[in-house]
Design brief:
binds manganese (II) ion; binds adenosine monophosphate; 9 helices; alpha/beta; globular; TIM Barrel; 8 strands
């Protein structure tokens, strides 16, 4: 039997639609054999998912997706196979969580100036104690008919340079990689093709990431085109980074992204799970 890996997805602990146990259940239905849950800046879903994984015969890998800042740019770094009890990691996450709450308040004030009231209360309620993200705001804007699609919410209000965008200084990239490494995990650059960086910025970024102890890069994601996979492969080989695969699944409502529905990892590359 072949092993199907999916090393990037979300639950209600951040902006996913399914409870952690239901993510596991769905992964099992989709034929995934090894799953990492990687919620934004939180480990709160991991215990429930780990328990459900035992019941569903899934090899569970504890993970996280950390929001980080390097040279005023935001990068998402996955921590795979982390120890969720590590004190450095836990302390780091705590800061991220207050940054997220502060940012949500500011986003809400900016939306208010655009005559969109009550969004803070709504997103906090929707997050149900989990990490609040811009996805919660886009859900609110959609539910209240201020926009007609999630994409429109980002294009009109929440995206970089739009009226309700709040620039945030997240965890320093170097610190975040240290937390992951100190917790015994592997630091992986999430969705490298989504940052819209020039080749020279990408070179500087990956050189630095490697220098500070980063070990992997996502080569296959849920929506990667063959060309994106090829380009990510080249980066992985050039910077001697192991290759990861992850759908970035958030919700069953998005028909384009499903747990385990991933292009195969090209053969001539070192898979990140060899480092676990
Ligand atoms: P945050 O980490 O709070 O900035 O929120 C980022 C999250 O918003 C991502 O993880 C996605 O779930 C979601 N997101 C970002 N851009 C878009 C977009 N253009 N359309 C739909 N969802 C998006
Ligand atoms: Mn998300
Ligand atoms: Mn991300
Ligand atoms: Mn993600």
């Amino acid at each position: 039997m072949t092993t199907l890996y999916d090393l990037h997805c979300h639950s209600t602990a951040s902006d996913g639609a399914l409870m952690p146990a239901d993510v596991i259940l769905r992964a099992s239905q989709m034929g995934v054999s090894s799953l990492a849950l990687t919620d934004h800046d939180t480990i709160n879903g991991l215990a429930e998912a780990a328990k459900a994984a035992i019941e569903n015969n899934i090899n569970f890998i504890p993970g996280i997706e950390l929001s980080t800042t390097w040279e005023n740019k935001c990068f998402h770094i996955l921590g795979l196979n982390i120890d969720p009890d590590n004190s450095d990691l836990v302390a780091g996450i705590k800061i991220q969580q207050s940054l997220r709450v502060e940012r949500a308040k500011k986003i809400s004030l900016k939306l208010e100036k655009k005559s969109i009231p009550n969004s803070y209360e709504a997103v906090i309620k929707a997050a149900k104690g989990g990490m609040v993200t811009r996805a919660h705001f886009s859900n609110y804007l959609l539910a209240q008919n201020y926009v007609s699609t999630q994409q429109q919410a980002f294009d009109r209000y929440l995206g970089k340079g739009k009226p309700a965008f709040v620039s945030t200084v997240w965890a320093d990239l170097h610190d975040a990689v240290n937390w992951i490494n100190q917790s015994g995990g592997v630091a992986v650059v999430a969705h490298p093709m989504r940052y819209k960086m020039t080749a020279s910025w990408m070179r500087r970024f990956l050189t630095f990431f490697k220098e500070i102890g980063g070990q992997g890069i996502e080569v296959v994601t849920g929506r990667s085109s063959p060309d994106e996979i090829r380009r990510s492969m080249i980066y992985a080989n050039q910077y001697d980074l192991a290759a990861s695969v992850g759908s970035d699944f958030h919700t069953p409502d998005n028909q384009w992204v499903e747990l385990g529905r991933l292009a195969p990892l090209p053969k001539n590359i070192k898979p990140v799970w060899e480092l676990f």
